[in-house]
Amino acid sequence: MGFIVEGEEETDVVLEPPPNFSMVEEGIYRSSFPQRCNFSFLETLNLRSIIYLCPEPYPEENLEFLRSHNIRLFQFGIEGKTEPSVAILNDAIREALNILIDVRNRPVLIHCKRGKVNSPNSAITCAFFPICIKVKLSLWNRIYK
Questions:
Q1: pTM of the full predicted structure?
Q2: How far apart are CA 84 and CA 122, in angstroms?
Q3: Sign (positive/negative) of CA torsion 112, 127, 73, 20?
Q4: Selected catalytic residue, list 37, 54, 112, 132
Q5: Buried b (16+ CB within 10 A) or exposed e, 55-90
């Protein structure tokens, strides 16, 4: 899936979102791991932050993109090969939710490797996590409005 931004034929830009990209809440997005071909699309989101939910180091090419666009990276290394302990998972979710609640960090992209349910890590991060965000934001809005 891609979007074409019209311009001169030689300067047409194809905007391609990362696989499994979707909006969770206004200013909060989720996807699989962004690749170079997705950078132009990500620029249109005017991201302030990325929450990366895997333990592997963030690739240098992606770090350079973040630096050049003043995007902050928050990494929560939830291991995908084994079930994380409840305490570790709770701590990671609590910290990530605190980042999401702070509107200074939005717009924000949350991503893991694949952005879909196919491993313990993905099931937690890309299925359960957006639900937690919606619940937490809903409760937060009720309490503080």
A1: 0.74
A2: 12
A3: positive
A4: 112
A5: eeeeeeebeebbeeeebeebebebebeeebeeeebe
> What SS3 state is found at 50?
strand
- Does the annotation count 112 as an active-site position? yes
Residues 56/72, Cβ–Cβ less than 8 Å: no
Task: Render each residue's pLDDT in the chain as its tens digit; 145 residues.
Answer: 556 565 566 667 789 999 989 888 889 898 989 999 999 999 999 999 999 988 889 999 999 999 999 999 999 876 655 555 555 566 777 788 888 888 899 999 998 876 544 444 444 455 455 556 666 666 666 666 5
Residue 139, φ and ψ in degrees, nearest 5: -65, -45
User: How far are the Cα atoms of 7, 41, 47, 114, 143 from residue 34, in angstroms, in the given order?
Assistant: 25, 10, 13, 10, 35
Residue with tokens 């910290």: 95
Helices then strands, counting H and E runs in the chain, come out as 5, 7
Centre a 10 Å sphere on the Cβ of residue 1 and count the other Cβ atoms it contains: 8
